[in-house]
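Subject — a protein and its fold
Fields — amino acid sequence, structure tokens
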Amino acid sequence: MSGLANFSSEFLDVCVSISLAILTVSFVLIVLRIVKGPTLPDRVVALDMLVAVGIGFIAAIGVQTDYYLYVDIAIALGLVGFLATVAFARFVLNRGLAKDPTIVDEIREVQARTAQEEGGR
């Protein structure tokens, strides 16, 4: 191998390692958001981000192993994640339309917090 090819191979390995480290940190933060909440829509958005981080992991491992079929798997996961997000959004909407007490209480809490913040300005 020439010097440039050697350098580019090592540089790619370092970049993949850095991206995997960043994805790991984001994965931990997203799991904390899912556990902490505080509301259902926060958890839905966090789950959607978890799918995006999963796609990043799959793509980075595909680059690291030179097995680019992982890109197809990442695309399929993206489609499934999108459909899951739409289903969760529809679920949340239907709970709100059905006057589910938990959703109504969350809406009142958010409205009260918003009114306090605007009144404090």
Summary: Residues 3-36 form the longest helix (34 residues).
